[in-house]
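queue> pop job 88
queue> type: inverse folding (structure -> sequence)
queue> payload:
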């Protein structure tokens, strides 16, 4: 897997890596296969510890500032960005019904699951180096992953006096675990599309999609 090999990481337990890359939709279709959810839980904890230590040792931030900066670099948008950059998103195993619905939530979850797999197979120091090698360049470039794209898009559209509208086009999943797909229209033309676990999250992602396309 190039997303590990480029960092000189080679897991001994190949099954562990396969599990980290397996979404529940794939596991449901293959009864003997495990999904990534338990590894995600572990990887999330390792990731938070590594980034907490990083900001403690490499900044003079107070507690609240460290929390804010850490949150920026471990949020869903950030993790999905890292995963796409290293090509991890292309290796995720999805069920037939989910193949066209690969979203940032799944991609971010798998990124954490892979960290969990590295931790179990190679130990803390190797997983720590993997995390820092990927994330620190973004920290040094001062990336902001928590941009309010809905506000930015609204401001951009207002300058041209255009209409802006969000519309839920699809809902799926159980009542307690729904997923929403939203489109954003500018003057009745669809400019962006987003998927999220809440309408608000889906709207934010649709706004991001539209803003990055229209504000070039």
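queue> result:
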């Amino acid at each position: 897997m190039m997303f590990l090999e480029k960092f000189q990481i080679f897991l001994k337990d190949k099954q562990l890596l396969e599990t980290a890359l397996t979404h529940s939709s794939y596991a449901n279709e293959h009864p003997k296969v495990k999904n990534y959810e338990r590894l995600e839980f572990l990887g999330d904890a390792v990731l938070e510890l590594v980034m907490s230590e990083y900001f403690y040792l490499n900044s003079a931030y107070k507690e609240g500032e460290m929390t804010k900066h850490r949150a920026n670099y471990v949020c869903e948008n950030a993790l999905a960005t890292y995963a796409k950059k290293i090509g991890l998103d292309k290796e995720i195993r999805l069920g037939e019904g989910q193949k066209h619905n690969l979203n940032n939530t799944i991609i971010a979850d798998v990124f954490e699951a892979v960290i969990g797999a590295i931790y179990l197979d190679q130990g803390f120091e190797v997983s720590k180096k993997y995390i820092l090698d990927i994330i620190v360049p973004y920290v040094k470039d001062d990336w902001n992953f928590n941009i309010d794209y809905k506000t930015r898009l609204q401001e951009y559209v207002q300058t041209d006096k255009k209409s802006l509208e969000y519309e839920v086009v699809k809902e799926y999943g159980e009542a307690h675990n729904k997923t929403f797909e939203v489109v954003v229209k500018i003057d009745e033309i669809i400019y962006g599309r987003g998927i999220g676990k809440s309408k608000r999250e889906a709207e934010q992602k649709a706004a991001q999609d539209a803003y990055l396309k229209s504000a070039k």
